[in-house]
Amino acid sequence: MTVHPIAARARVDDILSDMIHAMRLDHWRVDVELGAVDDSGHLLGEGVSDPRSRHVIITIDSDLHDNVKEIGNTLRHELLHVLHASFQTYRRACSHGLKRREDDIVEEVYQLASEETVMGIEAMLDAIGLDAETLAVKGAVLRSARRWPPRQREGKAS
Ligand SMILES: [Zn+2]
Question: What is the pTM for the complete model shown?
Fold first, then answer.
């Protein structure tokens, strides 16, 4: 079973900004695209981030998801990677002076560590009931709490 791209887009648009807020990623520009991630047809999603410009492009393959709840959790997974994107800067710095084969090994270890970290955080979030949907709701609550009480305008008319 697959999720229709329109339903997937609607889910992403519905929860993205609140999830970003809940995860304190407001300083990032997050673009989400729908489509195939790789040729193998196994990856549910992927994020390509640039920590310097704080921009990430997340791609989600809606054909590989059974329902929109899973779409949300893939989005959560990719946003968790963004939380530790600054380690990519460190990873790239490690490339200098390495031969191709050495760099491939360092990259493989880095990717493994990155996935294990994200999966550990996902397990913790699941254990406390913070799926993508709930995370978005928490983000919306946090956002509205910051707006309350509304700020007084200066130079009040009398
Ligand atoms: Zn991952």
Answer: 0.88
Say if residues 62 and 2 touch (Cβ distance below 8 Å): yes
* C-alpha 116 to ligand 1 mean position (Å): 8
User: From the CA of 138, how far away is ligand 1's center (Å)?
Assistant: 23
Reported as a single tens digit per residue, the pLDDT across 111-145 is 999 999 999 999 999 999 999 999 999 999 999 88
Sequence-separated (6 or more) residues with CB below 8 Å from residue 16: 30, 32, 75
User: Which structural domains are found in the chain, ordered by start?
Assistant: 5-137 (3.30.2010)
CA angle 46–54–144, rounded 5-degree value? 95
Question: What is the 97 CA–ligand 1 centroid distance (Å)?
Answer: 27
